[in-house]
Structure formats: C-alpha cells, structure tokens
C-alpha cells in the first residue's frame, strides 16, 4: 500500500513579500509633503554675514561711527598731476569770466571786453542788452549813438558792432578811458570816439545830433532823473533814449516832458526803459 504523501501545514507556508509603496504626492501623507528631512544638511548662503563673526558684523550707526565716517569723507583726496592742472585751469577761467564781458551781436560778436575791478562798475548784462537791441531792430546802420556813461563801453561797442556810423563814448575815470582805448584798438572800431569828460555837463552843451542816447549812470549816484533831463539836449526829435534805473519811470510823468515810454523791462534790480522823444 502506497505511502500517503504528506501535505504541508498551511500555517508553515512562506508568505510573499509585500511591495513598498512609493512616496508620491498622491499617496504621501499631507504632513510630510514639502517637509525637510532631519538628516538633510541645510545649505548656507556664502554671502550672508555671520552675526557671530566680529570681522563681518555690520557697523552700528552710533555717534562714534558717524563721526568716523564724517572724518573720512572730509579728509583731503590726493589729486593726480592731471587733475591738479584741470582744477587750475577751471579757477583761471572763472577769474577771467568774472572780469570779462562779451559782445553778443554784430561783426564783433563773442569778442571779450575787460571789466576792471572798480567800485560801482556794473556792465549791462547779456540778457538786458539782447532785449534792448531786439527793441531797436538789431541793425543800426547809419545811426549816430552816444554812450554817456561808457564804463566798459559794452553798450557803445554793441552799437558799433551792429553798424552804427558814429559812436561817441563819454567816461570820467582815467583807468576806464585807457581800457576803452585799448578795446577800440583791439577791435579796430574806427566809428568809436572816446572822450574823457563829465557826461552831465557834456550833454547839456551838446547840440541835438544823436539818434540814440545810452544812459547807464552809476546806481549809487542817483543820477537817473538828471541824466534823462540832460539827454534831451542832444537827442534828435523822434530819437531814442535808453535808460537803466533802479526803479521804473511812469509813462504819465514822461509824457509831461514830451517823452513816450516805448518799452520797459526788468532784470533783477535793473529797470530798462526805451523812451522816444516826440
């Protein structure tokens, strides 16, 4: 009789190994999504300063720190030879600019005139002269002009540069007269005549011969009214008088003297008037 085959006990059967689930965003528990492993090292920013490092700790904005920065900023900087030369040229140009004035129109445009360092000498600024000759029409060909208080001569030379036939300049100061003569020779201004005289007395004696009289008396002398009255002797009928003053002249008061206020402008403390003799 055949031996019956022994059957294994079910409890002793080998159980198959269960596969490990993959940790994906679908099956991973919510608490572990995006969490950093405790064993993973945290990367440091190499540029971030270490607060415990005395060499890289930020400087506190204390009074001593501010004083140190101010001292460092005020310390003189050593300039190179090229920078020193450039600074020297800038200073020289600034000094020359303060003692020169330029002609702004006509054949001598951009020519520089010296301005002596004398008290009370106040040349008419570029902008005011440009306004004046815009009023007059720029071209003064055939005109006879008197620059009564010449000073640097910039008004008279502007008129000669724009074609005036004759320009008579009056100046009392010897130093200014010498400067006017030097400028006349430099420009070759044959139409300009320079006379050393008191402008008030000279105008009262002169006949009516000028188409334009330029009046820029010293501001501290307060000669505005007297200069305007004296100029009436030497300006032709329908002629022009240009007056710079520290205060505006009223049109009604000018009309009483048979004068017409044609134009008025102000630049800072200077009141510029273009007046016509009727």
- Rg value: 46 Å
Mean pLDDT: 82
Please identify the top-level CATH class of the domain at 96-277. Answer: Alpha Beta
In the CATH hierarchy, the third-tier topology of the domain at 96-277 is known as Rossmann fold
- Annotation, overall tally of beta strands: 9
Question: Looking at the chains present, what oligomeric state does this protein adopt?
Answer: single chain
| Major sheet: arrangement of strands | 5-4-3-6-7-9-8
Instruction: Outline the biggest β-sheet.
Output: 7 strands, mixed
Helix content: 25-40%
Description:
Mean pLDDT is 82; it is low at 32-37. The chain has a seven-stranded mixed beta sheet, sandwiched between helices. The chain has a domain at 96-277: Vaccinia Virus protein VP39 (Rossmann fold), CATH 3.40.50.150. The chain is built from eight helices and nine strands. The N and C termini lie far apart (166 Å). The protein is elongated. The protein has helices at 63-74, 81-98, 126-136, 154-161, 174-187, 199-205, 224-231, 251-255, and strands at residues 100-102, 112-114, 144-147, 166-171, 192-196, 210-215, 235-245, 259-267, 270-277. Helix content is 30%, strand content 20%.
